């Protein structure tokens, strides 16, 4: 049975086989073009429909059934796999596309050693064509593949005719070349071959006329000039060089025109001046003659290298060579042998003298270019194995390489300079847009900046949108910003007849192994800003070592960027593309299952951080094993800080989907929100989580979130909202049958009520809480906080004697444990109580201890409060200079302190200054030394004590 796609899609078996319907033909074509490989159902749906209907999968199954019936007599097998279908061709069956590819490969392999055989292979390959590829199917992906096959046909035709000219078949080739140039009037290669054939037949004037015709057509239709090869041939014709160049008898560089194969430099090239300067400095320093520029698709690697090469051209007398290695072009990448053959032909070595083995050909190349000064550009490389045979062996040559991957294998075996190239910054993005648009459009930088942000600084995207604005004067920047802000941004980043940004990404994606494709898709779909090895492993259920290696591969291929903290992040447009692929190739259930694993991991780590930082609070999910806790509180806080953006994004995702992770993640971040987070963002996240918990009737979540909202509003000085949420939290713990879980809510609510002078309410709250305290005292911080608040209640109601007992209990509870902040509060309260009871020695001892406990604490407000209390005490009972020193510490940065504390410190300093003024005329009387002076100073201190005691009683 014979399968045909080089023309209409047909099957023959002693006559044509009926294929029922165009979708069955399209399905067969897709399977044939991927024979031996499984084609997923999602990809089939994408290929058969622009917008797959809900019944697409069922229709595909029906088409497969019809195709099986049509191929019933074939020995080929249509296999159903886990994710799609695969067509395996039997040895007795044939496919014209497979035969075409095999014949072309054979022709290229023998072109250098046996040109006549190569021509026969090419002719046999071209004879298989019956029209345009896939002529009777016109579906999305197949249209792209058809265009690629048609291009291969033209390339094969050109290569065949070029080889015939090398064999001297000039006259026979002219007719075919005339037909080819009419069919493709804007292709340079047929024009060049026709001019060579005419020249070789002594028809120089006709060759010159054809050049003039081609140049005119090119300028009128594209606004371009012919390339350097064609221009060089034209100059030779004008000089009267009618005869073809003789074939050299020996290998080597013959005398003749110097090769100048560099692509044209971009007139609108913008930015990268610092990169170019660094590269030129590196080359001038002789530190290496191989440079690898690598980066994301579309970041301008080739443009940069071409600009660099043109700026260095004068240094390389023996010429400039250019090879497109086609790593990401349709079809296969250029083999080392083919690339070497092209390089050798470019420097004038006749193909017939080249060896057939790649290693031998690489050696011949190094020998030929030894001592020559050549600049070689190897564009779009794939691997070190592709590059290494192409490197000259001497230092006179410079090799510039572009690749989407870092090519670590090359860097480990050479002294190559590795230069990563990223997207443009905001300034250069706007400059590039202006250079493409031109001066005709008067657009503000702010508008262009908005457009540049939507292009994420990617030069290829910036050029596309700039060209759209230049071509269509009716299109405004505002219109384009609105288009790109929609869900189809990648669709807008293309020009008519151009594959656009999506095609550049697609080639990088298709080059990945299946497992990396799946990981990349899931990473894009995951609700996080960046990923770590641990989170990627949880997303995929892979071992961490496997996830680590996979992330490194994706980073090396510039499909992920490395963050400052060692994580990995998407470029915005790549994430958009990868998310598209995820929605097409992965089911919704698969995507949600992966995200659920990620949320579980983040929730468990957040709980571990929470239990490390707040060991006396009830655990969020379950008690975490000690070995799984963070080693230190600093480590837990550091992890929360590094992952804060991801935790917030995961929490919002969970809230949108009403998952319990929403409150688990938000609660786990409590310590981070308290110390570093934005209060309004905290309230917003808690409110979203509360709505989700209420929608699913999750009382556990509602209790946690109400406690969090109470704390957030408390720290934001919103008394009414804070009191409401704490009371709701306490009520919910009773409904859950776990009233002791609400003790921390009691504690903070009591502080809140004390701060606002609601002493009766505070007494009621504290009495309820103390009655609920467990008898085994496993929560010393909590109990100490409640007793400390009870002591403050007595202080604020002018009962310092009654305050002493609960404060001493609090001090005993905290002795022997690491609770410096809690102890400092108790020490301050004991100091104030003793000060009120006129026990200055004990008061000073407690207040100095509070300052020592907070000496290295990061919270400036806590330290400032301790210095304020000690300063106020010293102003009454101690040395005024020392009092000023402690108050000065508080006032060093008043903007970081509590406003009430700052006002109190300034008032105390004012009283001290007044006291000093009163003491100026007083001098010790003769015979009394300084005693009288000290008594007068104490008198001034007593006047101050009235203010200090009043303020101390109202400020904790």
Q: Please give the largest β-sheet.
A: 5 strands, parallel
Helix content: 55-70%
Q: Strand order across the biggest sheet? A: 8-9-10-7-11
Distance between the termini: 92 Å
Q: Please, how many domains?
A: 5
What's the pLDDT, averaged over the residues?
85
Number of strand elements: 13
Q: For the CA atoms, what is the radius of gyration?
A: 40 Å
Structural class: mainly alpha
DSSP helical segment count: 44
List keywords for this structure.
single chain; 956 residues; mainly alpha; Arc Repressor Mutant, subunit A; Rossmann fold; Helicase, Ruva Protein, domain 3; 5 domains; five-stranded parallel β-sheet; three-stranded mixed β-sheet; 61% helix; disordered C terminus
Please give a quick description of this structure.
The chain has 956 residues and is mostly helical.
Can you lay out the helices and strands and say which pair or pack?
Elements: E1 2-4, E2 10-12, H1 22-33, E3 39-40, H2 41-48, H3 56-70, E4 77-80, E5 84-88, E6 94-95, H4 96-110, H5 115-126, H6 140-166, H7 170-183, H8 188-200, H9 204-222, H10 228-238, H11 273-284, E7 290-295, H12 301-312, E8 320-324, H13 336-346, H14 358-369, E9 375-381, H15 384-387, E10 398-403, H16 408-413, E11 417-421, H17 426-437, H18 445-454, H19 459-471, H20 477-484, H21 489-492, H22 500-510, H23 514-525, H24 533-540, H25 544-556, E12 561-562, E13 568-569, H26 572-585, H27 588-613, H28 633-642, H29 644-656, H30 661-668, H31 670-675, H32 679-695, H33 699-715, H34 719-735, H35 743-755, H36 759-772, H37 780-796, H38 800-814, H39 820-836, H40 840-853, H41 860-877, H42 880-891, H43 899-919, H44 931-954
Parallel strand pairs: 1-6, 7-10, 7-11, 8-9, 9-10
Antiparallel strand pairs: 1-2, 3-5, 4-5, 12-13
Helix pairs in contact: 1-3, 4-5, 5-6, 6-8, 7-8, 8-9, 8-10, 9-10, 13-14, 17-18, 17-19, 18-20, 23-26, 24-25, 24-27, 27-28, 27-30, 29-30, 29-32, 30-33, 32-33, 33-34, 33-35, 34-35, 35-36, 35-37, 36-37, 37-38, 37-39, 38-39, 39-40, 39-41, 40-41, 41-42, 41-43, 41-44, 42-43, 43-44
